[in-house]
Amino acid sequence: MNTIIALGEFGYMTYQVALSLRHSFRDRHRLAFQMDHVGVNSIPLVILVGLFAGAIIAWQGAYQFQGMVSLDILGGQSARIIVMEMGPVLTALVIAGRIGASMTAEIGTMKATEQIDALRTMALDPVRYVVLPRFLSLSLMMPLLTLFSNFAGIFGCFVVSNYFLDISQETFLDSIKFFFEMKDLIGGLIKALLFGMLISLVGCYKGLSTSGGARGVGRSTISSFVISAIFILVGDFFLWLILF
């Protein structure tokens, strides 16, 4: 019963966010602040994760291909895996932990200290004032962060291929040119967009539904990341069936 009520409240909040989209331009200053917090400050972490993820993919690919197919195709196949799967999913999981949980903690603290009630007292809609900038910022920045992750991953794959597996730069790049398809990149960016929307909505909802003071904020923060991670992985499965 509680799950059904929670789903109804989540759906209603999503509906309110959709109605508030018409105010996006008026709220551009709060949106710019959130985009800086969500996007710019997350770039170093995303690049670091993408770099080592790409390096690991190169090692794993070389291990799997050894004795079966030529390593000349390693660059192209690794790049496709990165842009279709590893880039969007790993970036989403990192952002769910760094930003989604942070959104829940911020809004949950506002709820616990009655700042959300104060907004309503001043005739300010909490969904528009608090949720909308976070929703838009994460939705817009996730595809860009995923691009950074993709480039870092491909570079990490190139470093391992070139310096440890004796695959020349020309062979690596030719493999990418031969196997790469634009629909792979577009599909990955669509995933990133939807993951960004999902993470922001879950994070904001868990924050607004927080109760129980500081302990409640802690529970909501953990729950936000767990739910977001599950939705990302389950959503990735179904998006794969639809997009590819």
Fold and architecture overview:
With 244 residues, the protein is mainly alpha-helical. The chain is built from 9 helices and no strands. The protein has helices spanning 2-20, 28-38, 43-65, 74-112, 115-121, 126-163, 169-179, 182-208, 213-243. Helix 4 (74-112) runs parallel beside helix 8 (182-208), helix 6 (126-163) crosses helix 8 (182-208) and helix 8 (182-208) packs antiparallel against helix 9. The radius of gyration is 20 Å and the shape is elongated. The model has no long low-confidence stretch (mean pLDDT 91).
Helix tally? Answer: 9
* Anisotropy-based shape: elongated
Radius of gyration: 20 Å
Task: Indicate the low-confidence ranges by residue numbers.
Answer: none
End-to-end CA span: 36 Å
Mean pLDDT: 91
Q: Strand tally, please?
A: 0
Q: Which structural class best describes the helix and strand composition?
A: mainly alpha
Work out the helicity level. Answer: over 70%
The largest β sheet comes out as: none
**What is the string of SSEs from the N terminus onward?**
HHHHHHHHH
Strand content: under 5%
